[in-house]
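Quick sanity check, beta-N-acetylhexosaminidase:
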Amino acid sequence: MLSIIPQPLQVTHDEHAAVFPLGSALVLTADTDAERSVGRLAAQRLGRAAETGPLAHVTPGERDLAAPTVVLVLDPAAGPEGSTHPERYSLVVTGEEVVVSAAEPAGLQLGVSTLRQLVTTDAAGRAVVPAVVVHDAPRYGWRGLSFDLSRHFFRVEQLERVVDLLVDYKLNVLHLHLTDDQGWRIESPSRPELAKEGSTWEIGDGPGGYLSVLEFDQLQDYAAERFVAIVPEIDVPGHINAATHVYGDLNPDGKPTDEYRGMEVGFSKLTYDLPATEPFLRDVFSDIAAITRGEHVHIGGDEVFTMDPAEFAKFVELCERVVLDAGKKVVAWQEAAHADVRPGTLIQFWDTNKKDHAPFLRAATEEGARFIMSPGNRAYLDMKYTADYALGQDWAGLVEVHDAYDWDPETVIAGMPAEAIEGVEAAIWTETLSTLDEVFEMLLPRLPAVAEVAWTDPARKDWASFRARVAVEAASWRREGRAFHASPQVVWS
Ligand code: TNX
């Protein structure tokens, strides 16, 4: 069995043909900046998989014709017959050569992710790749993970390990939940006191922390080189205690609120009619838009339990306007669909406990909204695997690997038109997760399951095959030092 996650559109495998000797191969790209960067990273990743140390990366003038070569080449004809998807790629492996072709540099990296998963060892213990032909393209263009930095803070180096994981499973969005009741985790240049005074605690007794603009930039560089977009979220008008702690004038009584180290949600909020509120929103959303390289900014909007709908709508309208004026597109949690969101805004669906929401979510699509699907009972990877699992929460239900795998974004909301779905995001909330090991234990093996939902044509999905394929990946998790949960639903080989 060839083990590739997410399952590609087309795979053919010749078991009798010669295998490719990866351990002694060169990686060849053209001599443009983008291709050199893809080649250098590919040489590192493939070398780790082959356990040889980085492969040599060469450009045409340096090619050694005698050496087995992994050729990365841009070619508009790459991908499945007739596909025009910008991320399409093909991978052809013979005994002499590997050719990864793609329409764009991002597709070359996707092909390398597939190649990396095909590395095995032959009888002599050498790293080899079987003879295959793969033609592939994704179902959705937005394939992400939402990561909560507020409840527990994680440093750039840790977030880079998460980006590496996304790349392995062809995910291309890292959404950072940067602010909440338990801490403000991003420097806002026009309001330096916000992160300085609003980030010094977290849940439990850890020290908290925040990303400086420089660190945020370092992460964006790292992610951009790997074709992962960073989508920052400033969550308003609820989940705002870190800011109301720093600025008493955001509160009706003028007094700063206390630091909050608990796990409750829904108790904090802004007040639209206070004089300090609009300048605060303008500053933080202009700042985040200015330091963000990607196209999107997330304005939050979830779980404001005690605000009248007219006031809530004013918040959504103002934040949308500030973000759009700054040249970015808007993402918001599903509650924002209660306000009049503008066409082009992406709505992130999450709350699978709420009933009877289908009509108004469908109505939002008629106004031009598109959806990112993060159903809590499928894609919230902070949910416990089983009732007695030590980590995680269970408000959306228990999410075993099969639950994370066996769903279709198109049928989550009754009557939602398929064209309204932009993509899929898993989410990891960190109330109960304070170390990267704990985070990885919740992500693996469920994130690859959600990745297959986001990438693979439903006709090509197959649970029996997934539970065996995902086991093959455990060797790479061990090699990369990634913790994982040995779920009994997986056929560990
Ligand atoms: C719901 S999802 C929340 C978060 C919590 C999460 C815990 C969403 C938009 N709001 O504030 O951290 O549940 O699972």
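Posting the structure with no commentary besides this: The longest helix spans residues 33-50.
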